[in-house]
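Hi D.,

Good news: the full-assembly prediction came through. Inputs first.
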Amino acid sequence: MSPNDKSKPPSTDAPADADATWNLRLYVAGQTPKSVRAFENLKRLCDEHLPGQYSIEVIDLIVNPRLAKEDQILAIPTLVRKLPDPIRKIIGDLSDTERTLVGLQLRPAAVDRK
Amino acid sequence: MKTRSALTSPGSPEDAQRRLEETEAIIRAISEGEVDAFVISGTDDPQVVTLSTADSAYRLLTDKMMQGAITVAPDSTILYANVPFARLVGVAVDRLVGTPLTRFVHDADRPLIEALLWPDGSEHIDSELILKAPDGDLPVRIETARPFEDARAVCLIVTDLSERRRHEALAEAEALSRSIFDQAVDAVVVCDLQGNVVRASKSAHALGGCNPLLKPFLSVFPLTGGPEPLDFTAIEQGQVLRNVTFEMVCADRRLAVAVSAGPVVDAKGEAVAAVITMTDVTGITRAAEELKHADARKDEMLAVVVHELRDPLATIHGVSQVLEYESAIEPAGTRVRQALRRAVDQISRLVEDLTDFNRIRLHKLSLRRHPLDVRSIVERAFESRRPMMAARALQVELVLPETPVPVSADETRLTQVFVNLLNNAIKFTPNGGEVRVRVEVDDPSGMGIVTVRDTGAGIAQEVLPKIFNAFEQGGRSEKYGGLGVGLTLSRRIVELHGGTIEAASTGPGAGSVFTVRLPLSSDAPSPSVGEQ
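Then the structure:
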């Protein structure tokens, strides 16, 4: 984990930091089922845990594959947390909410990952 | 790059750790089925590949579109077809794949298909051809698109033109009916069953003085005065009106409108709208009233004619009886002859009047004009009436200018005018009254003016405007006799000479003045004027 980790309270329903703006980027491949599901999951999760303090940028790599280079994307869908620092990647359709929250550091890892 | 700087620096142990974690995450996501596309970045330009089920959204879209869509190999084998295309050619989708497209094309159109599949450098081709469809030939438009640079398969978008042509035919029919609608002289309005205008012909726009569309019908066409108000509920229930006259005040005009109305029914026979036709009958109604009035006046005249004939006929009857007794002739001879003469004169005048009236009515009055001196005509007319005036002990005066008053006129007709005016003056002036006639020349207007002034019965103000109309005698015919065509005839004659005639009176009992103006002629009148 990055040394810049901020510890978050277990429940983040209340805005953690009024100034913190979450800048999220979702890489998709057109309307593939997993891409569509990833966006749905992300939207729901943000509305629940980051109301009013996030922005989601969707990048369709089928339209412009070169953009994959910037964040070194290999599998689609992939979510990249651009802000707050540090950059973090979560791969997959975000259907495991717990893992996604941990990945976004909205929730501390429960136990040691094996 | 800014983004890279945010990551751990390449090659560091942290970077290696991060890469390891990311690889683990990718493997986990793949094994759990959370990804369905990958970026392959072996070359300069990364490429995205998707799993086989990933294009289901596009398949769904193409299946839902209106047009047929197919992908065809260069040899015309169909590689993909959407449901609409399958429907167009009447073959199931799974049986279409692998079938040559040329199977659905007439031989004549094959070169066209080949051109589509092997275009000579052109990116986009658009052409129309006929497909073989289950219900016969089907006109279609085919557009091409090339999805792959290396493979030469072509995507074709197939549009059914028969539908569009049906729409064009419908639009044409609509335009035609619209044009017929607008040609209608009557105002035609279609209303919904709430009474709002949904369609209106050009004449309806003109009649309402505005665009009536979507407005309540009765607000644009306020029909009143009918046997009962226009009722849309009744029309919906099948009520039909035919040429019912209403009144309508529209844009400051008061109109008489003949209204027809009835329901518009759909195929099931249910009323869906009301159609209302309105004809402006203001002019016709007025003409009908005038005709009615003229007819009434004719009836009155007929009564007068009968009345006028009765007296002289009675005289003639009596005289003829007297003549049967020859012995009685000698002693009473003179009186009998005079009575007979008067009776015959009376009837002759009546016949003359009727003849003239008919001439006016049929516009058959014509003039034989010669150069004349108005003075001599007026003088002759005046002299011919002198015995009558003397018999009534009237004070008379005739004033003539010293120089001639030259006109181009029909002597007989013009004499008739002045005799008529004098007869009227004598007829309506009590014994001992005055009748003055004056002839003068008005140089500025170039008119000769004749005035006949009396101190007789005069004319009521309300009668003055109508006095020259046939059979109007200011309600005096009973008392004074005659048909009342004299003034009508006089006006007609004067007008045929290019002149005017007018009557003036300050009221009943105050006498009247008739003024005749005739345009002067440059031709010198011939010294002796005689009837032809």
